């Protein structure tokens, strides 16, 4: 015994540098069982397993049940399924009769190693089982994403006459939470109470986590209140639940209550949750105080708390503080680097790339989250070069086939106005693309005025594995509305009805907008009336549609109906009703609406509202009032305001105000052809031919050319575009013949082309 003790002391002292050959020699001098047990006791699990393997190959060994237990535990700790199966097989072939403890350890080993088939096979051969056996199986299924099997196992356990304990409840409640079965969760809660475990921490903490996962914060709070002696997990679960479900103030109050108890030491996860609460509340003063507490508890350099602190300061816009929080992290991991890159991505793409380079220099390999954050920073044509560099690195890393990364590349190229490369990215991943990929490329076509490509891709999508969702439909309907493409819009409407997507309020809103812009107000109203729960966008879309087509009274009636139903209008709604007042000349009512929208509803006027008021006054002939209103508004007058006034000056023949309006337009945009043309026409109508000649010469000297008008029409799924005096259309002969016939019919009906002289 003295010699063996001395050998053990020598081995413990020199173990890190002793070769395997010497270890094998030493182990022969000790009994195999004692040596393996010693290695396991000292947590040298690999050495214990190597010793078992060595003796298995070189001699027949007889192991004690306790040695088998330690070997199975070693396999569990190092997650070695290979050794676990080998040891289990050795047990079955030996004379050892495994007791219930050893059998349960075997079940647990298989569960931890992710081999539930082997666990179930071992479980089914057990002649004697205990609650622990059932609980291990339930926990194994739950931990390995087989929550339905865990629930079935729990039911079988009850039918077999076994009563669950708090560990069983903890495992099955977790499985229920993963499965998302809220009804079963309520039943389990009742079973916990009935079984008398409603005062045991494991079950109670599991119930808190379950209820917060299901969004039932009141039930979680009730369970938390019933806990007589809470542990740190109880506090952490409740604080995290409050934060995640939007009850940030309650989370901070609960953190304060825990701190006042004086017996709990918050961990990094609790600090992470309260930092998130401060971030959502936009309360930097709270965040700074809690940061001090975090440092006081020795977690100032913790990676988890540091990431949350960095994210909080980034949300506040305090980037120097965010960087300081990052630099304080003792050993920043990939998640930490991703957090600081994400923080900088919204403000400075070059600095985000600098931190990315630093991360690479530190030997860390970026993942898809890293590139998603970097690509978010490239959101304008100015950052296209950086975005392309990131794209090159993505290809080098082999992540160019990852759907999420490619979708971000699509969005980046779209925002950078590089539609060509966006199409190339989509082409490369079209086979592996998901629904987000299709929606991204359709959105790119819509934003960059490529309706033909959008319609072509939409047709291809219908034959792909990815079927359109509400986002797809709203994008295509938006394109139809911009083109006034009624034929395609009707087809998309039929598809949305057939697929059931029409019940989505966002789809209904787009349909209302599309039909309104196509001039089919009856169709728009039908869709509106068919919408189960119209929101403010639904009301506003129809009101604006009525106003745009001169149906001012219908727009105002709809607005009054909306107000009577208690629906609060927004900025767009008021644009619609002010435009309606303008079309039917209700100056007084327009003034009243404009003056009360901020006082009564807190909606401050925007430039668009000011332009509507200018149009309202000018259309009604109140040109001087409109001019004074422009000067007195809180905004710097823009071209839209002055153009609106100038157009009305032409209608009412006011040359003086027209000259001042045109002068202000040219100050803002010296090459604005529309202002010069309008002013020239106004002078022509007034017979001021000298001014007409002067303006035409001025336009020639400045090189200003009138932008030709353009119109289009869709016939049999093809869009025909026309310009003024256009002769490029393949059917121009037939078109001009028809125009001549119409001209002759107009003359026969008494039209006098000289009645209204227009020079330009």
Automatic annotation (TrEMBL):
Q: Where are the PPR repeats?
A: 130-164, 231-265, 434-468, 535-569
Q: Give a single Pfam family match.
A: PPR_2
Which PROSITE patterns does the entry link to? PPR
Q: Cite the entry's keywords alphabetically.
A: Repeat
Can you provide one Gene Ontology molecular function annotated for this UniProt record? Answer: RNA binding
Tagged with keyword Repressor: no
Task: Check the record and name the InterPro entries matching this protein.
Answer: E_motif, PPR_At4g14850-like_plant, PPR_rpt, TPR-like_helical_dom_sf
Q: Which domain of life is it from?
A: Eukaryota
Which GO BP terms sit in this record? Answer: plant organ development; RNA modification
Stated name of the protein? Uncharacterized protein
The gene designation is LOC100786133
